[in-house]
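Exercise 7 asks you to align residues with tokens for two separate proteins.
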Amino acid sequence: MKKLIAVLLSFVVLGSVFVFNVNAVQIGDYEVEYNDEGIVITSYSGTLADLEIPETLNGFKVVGIGEEAFRNSALKSVYLPDTLKSISDSAFADSKNLRSVKLGSSLESIGTTAFYNCVKLTSEIRFPDSLRKIGESAFENCWDMTYAVIPAEVEEIGYCAFGYYYDTDSADKKYYDFQRSDFKIFGYENTAADGYCKEHKFEFYDLNMGYNGASYNGMDFLLTSDGSAELTDYNDASADLKIPETVNGYIVKSIGDYALFASSIENVDIPKTVEKIGKWAFESCDNLKSIKVPPTVKTVMEGALGYYYEDGFNRPYLDFKICGAPNSGAKEYADIYDFEFEDVYTTFVKLKKSSGSVYVKGSIKINSEIKNGIGKTKYKSSDKSIASVSSSGVVTGKKAGKAKITVANNGVKKTFTVTVKNPKLNKTKVNIKAGRIYALKIIGQVGKAAFASSNSSIVKVNASSGKFKGLRNGKAVISVKTNGIKLKCKVRVRV
């Protein structure tokens, strides 16, 4: 009480009297309440975007953040003191600019919807070992938060605390909680985190595997400090195994010793991030008859592929086939251990035709067959003023002439020669008797054409069809604009 009275008296300064009540006291930018342990912050009127809350205010420990104390705030980051024990319901809810939160080492509880709809809050938030309870929807609608690491000491995790968003259902327009497919939870077996994942069917990553261990689709990985991951075990009965390129942001670069030993896989997809396959990695995979090894794999260790263990000996499968690239670790391994090898990575580019023609403004498609291509096939014209080519191999004539189109994939090239022609009229001179009709035709026309007569009293022409009629004795010129080019036909009319 003596401290409380001292605090209240401090609001009388140089004859100025501040109005207060015992339930809410203003200390600087903070409105606070007192309890038996210290101060609970109930609101904040400051303008700081990056806020560090002190451990004490007026000599009292800051032990709590009250309900809605920072709701809808403009905070970008907040540093909470080590004296803090509780964050109450909706304390930071709807703070849509909040990206970073540092939790104190004494925090025991996080209330319901405490950080609800903090859409920019990242996964960098770290929960202290002192934490015991995380309330319902505490981190719901936190879209930039993709995973959480939960200490073993946490005893209670509320409904939808992690990995959920709140939205309307398209059918009935009512709001529901929807589970995110991209959210990951790291924790320890037989803890609240494990139970939460089982209840909500989230993937669970057991930290007991070692520092930065992870599991994914029945696969266990060791995550290393250099940002790489090694597949260490496979515990699933699925016949088709797809090894991911990354696990929790770590690049999968190796398959460890005995990682797939005696598994039931029939097919395996090894990503092009993998550089090494360890000793006896696929030993005794009886259903695996062949394997495709990407050219990125430079090292294939002893017995990694095509072996089984029987009666104390490592024996080769006689019908095992290794598919890969020449001058690769897979090819070297196949040669050393005398396995059948198939080149499935050398790129071949084949053109159905090596040349073709097109009229100005017309188009022609290059028909190509790419085998074992890598990435997109690229097309390039030797003279874009004569012929351009699209990313899909469509050649468009620009002006009369010849150009070469290069078709390339993975360093392999083929050339297509295109001849661009100007359109032309079927006749450039016509003699016609008065009263007779003649039709001009455009060879190589692209798009619409417009015909015109230089003297319509002598020759009358249909502007769109090119049909003309001689009217009286004399000469006229019929011109037509087509494909961006002007063509002419001289007409002489005789009576």
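Second protein for Exercise 7:
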Amino acid sequence: MKCTLMNKNTEILSAEYNPVSKFFDIIYEVKNIDYAPYILKKFYEEGDFNNNSFRTNLSDWFRGRGIPSWRDKLDLLLHRLNIYTPDELLDKAFGLSLSDQYWIKPFDSDISYDDINFFDHDFDYSEFLSASLSLNSEKIQKEASLKTPNNTTDGMLRKAWIIEDDVRYLLKGVYRNEILQPFNEVLATEICKRLDFNHVPYTLDIYKDTVVSKCPCFINKDTELITAQQIRNDMNRHDNKEDYEEYIKKLESNGIENARVKLENMYILDFLIMNEDRHLNNFGIIRDVNTLKWLDLTPIFDNGMALNIPYYDEEEVIISGNGRLFYEVKPFDEIIKIVKDITRIDVTKLDGIPEYFDKLLHEYQHLTHISDSRINKLCILLERQINKLQVIIEKAKS
């Protein structure tokens, strides 16, 4: 199938796309490489854009837009969607997403971005939502239910985009039998709000007796998310703290203001809630797709894999696990040391946070069945982290 890869209304390249293999077999012409997905520019060579490296990475990028093979209960989802692989969904809605503005335009078609994008146009999500999050769901009956931005969602958690009052919200479930993730997202929201950290606001919702997290889309039809993973491919890699410093320099050189402080805020939050999953696709920058200007860091998002207590008894809370600092897996007590001026944090703003979390968990206990003992230990752990941060700040002041 001959097609054009578009970025909103800008033509990037024309190519021969194989809808079976999901591979771009031939690149006919590259028209605007600057508007291509950021990760592809590294592999582009003018005059030799049909090389295997560029075509392979273009194809990998496109397939990577789909639901990943590690999505929780993927087999069940595919059964309900009546398809064999997630790749089958990529062609259903031109490859459109709510994270960026890239799409595949059939050759000689007069369709435009304004005709089809999911920021302006509603989409049928009810059957996909049920297939993703419901304990019991029938196979999808309407083809329209497969023409949604739900075809291009990343991550291991079951999730679905919905529309309420013309706002696009992402609902996320839990991972296997662990039901704490939605509550961790709301806890992170409360902490960020109190400390004035830029963040995506999460709330709780109930879908068919299941507690899910709910957050608005932080991308609009003029912006895109570029992850730190994509940006680091355009950097020299050292596999140590030096990469973190190089990343900050990259942000600053592209006009991002207060980049270091904003990244530090993210790691301060991770320290407080012991978030173990700050991988390079869980943060990045927002770029204007019309001017290609780097606008800002992404607000802090995706904080669910936190407060992990693999073992506890009546006497003690046993903690294992580490956080992530760029590529490195490190203890949280080491990660917090990257903050240049920790004294800028007013810990008194977190007064009552353990009590807030305790109340939140008890409010939904009839649905989650989290025991009183576990709730108590979670709040003890949270209070411990807040107290540790206070000690670190006091030492820095002395």
